[in-house]
Amino acid sequence: MKKAEKITVMGAGNGGKAMAAHLAIMGAKVTLFNRTWKNIESISERGGISLKNEGAVQDFGEIALMTSDIEIAVKASKIIMVVVPAFAHAEIAEKISPFLRNGQIIVLNPGRTFGAFEFRKILSKNGCSADVIVAETQTFIYASRSQGPAQALIHKIKDAVPLAAFPATGTEKVLEALKPFYPQFINGKTVLHTGLDNIGAIFHPTITLHNAGWIEATGGEFQFYLEGVTPSIAKVMEAIDRERVQIGVALGIKLMTACEWLKMAYDVQGDDLFETIRTQEGYRGIKAPSTINHRYINEDIPMSLVPMASLGKMLGIRVRGMESIIRLASIIRNKDYWKMGRTVENLGLSHQAPENLLSMAVGKSMRAHTRDKTTWYYVPAG
Fold this sequence. Notes:
single chain, 382 residues, Rossmann fold, N-(1-d-carboxylethyl)-l-norvaline Dehydrogenase, domain 2, 2 domains
């Protein structure tokens, strides 16, 4: 194993703490950044994070440096793992752009949908000239939860997680850099694949909304996947999943079905989505959100489902299932998730033909234009 690789983890939520602790235990020299010092003060006082890994041993991840200074965090490492809600990606891109240097690797864990597109757009808008690789994972590698200010629990580490750089010409370099720590990362082809194979967009909002009454009545005291998914709810998820797969067909790419994704990520089997979810032991013990005001709605709707539906509408695909979930969430939360979300319009992609989107993701020379025809980034030839 490669020892003392310097890696910065941005974000000290349940995912960031789990990743930082696990990387440290595996031998990395970890810098942990959080914009609010108070949230990492306990970690600083203890010198690290206690990590419990179900099915494995409990251990302590010693964190080399903790900081709320983003300049220090960016300059500390060649590899930067961004582990924040997707709605914070834009802010991170804005703040790190002045400090990036040639050769650095930025990985969004995960990118949700169009995360890498948005990140590169902002770096370019800010005049960042550093030769960096921006990549994203299709999903977060851990099923994890926070267990205190300096504690984290990993329920399960996924067996395989697709990763793609934008453009895809940089993917193998990222995989090679992360292989000593994450051999589970595999080539995800392009960021269109990783972004559209974002199964959380199908699972999280649908299960949460259909269990809204139960969540509000119990404070989430039930198993989210194993009790919250019934045959009827699974049918709704399958219908929305078919819309997602059809968007891929219109782009000329093959996407995994939700069942295929579960089999890849967790090595489980089932005749339909309901059965496949029920056989996933990694979901056992994962409770529902305690409130509807949760990232399964606030993040997964605007940063995942909205961009999928927006792209689908642009391509002429009927996405009524996605639209119904977005509309229902907007009513319940009294928010306009369409306006808040990533859309092809605000990403500057609405003028692009399907083949151009794929060329951009692969890494062929071309320019993308916003509605006022101003160029926002250039994707170099592969």
